[in-house]
Amino acid sequence: MTVTAVKNAAPASEEPVKAAKHRNPLRFGVLIGLLVLLLLVVAPLLVVAINAVKSPSDYASNGPLSLPGHLYWDGIVNFWNRVNFGQKLWNSFFTSLVVAVLAVVVSILNAYALGIGRVKGRIWFLVFFLVANLLPQEVLVYPLYYLSKQVGLYDSLWSIIIIFTVIQSAFGTYLLTSVYAEFPTELLDAASVDGAGKWRTLWRVVVPVSRPTLGVLFTFFFIWTWNEFFLPLVFLISNDNQTVPVALGVLQGDRLMDATTTSASALIGILPAMLFFVIFQRTLTRGITAGAIK
């Protein structure tokens, strides 16, 4: 048999294998299972969105699962004006953004010292950060409440910013230390040969190389801080300082809140976090892909 005949026969033998892969029932079963899980996740959001633009009379007549006869925006407008939602939105955005930036910076500094600097007792430091990250907020609330009273930060956004910066950076330090412990020593040696000090090596070499991981941390820190409810409920008692989750939780027991207004409040409460996640989805994908390639 000639070489040409062997080359021509090879694709023919590969075609049944590819067809068998496409006809594999396991692949279709996994796909159907994922579609069912997607519907289970999206269905409540769709119900909330439908009822948010439905009039109270339409809701009372046709129930929560029916499509609205016409778009009714008064529920969203009334909720926005009733709770001064623009102020709540700014409080949540400002708090989440500052916490995400500060927590990433603190995590970088800690992880650089523990992962690359290899300070003495690094294992005990990592255990400390791990335990601090695992502590429930209910255990921390009283001492934090007492300290915030003593330093005059109670009922201030900065109290929440400081608390969540420490909490989030504990997780960030633990994660980044494992990444920096495996950092290529060739890059560090090259920077040292070029005369770069530790500070310059950190910001000119280590941070740019680990940017995908830092982007993932920044996104998670922002969303986690945005969704926090318990500690902001305790520390932010003034109406002007409340965040979005606190405003939504406080109004759930309001007798003036009908079902459509409640749906409107839930919709505009989760939309900012969803938009932020969609905007930074590419950053998350790049970070996960970089970790997989490594």
TrEMBL record:
PROSITE patterns: ABC_TM1. InterPro entries: MetI-like, MetI-like_sf. Pfam families: BPD_transp_1. It comes from the Bacteria. Its main location: membrane. CDD domains: TM_PBP2. Residues 89-280 form the ABC transmembrane type-1 domain. The keyword Transmembrane applies. It is a multi-pass membrane protein. This is ABC transporter permease. It comes from Paractinoplanes durhamensis.
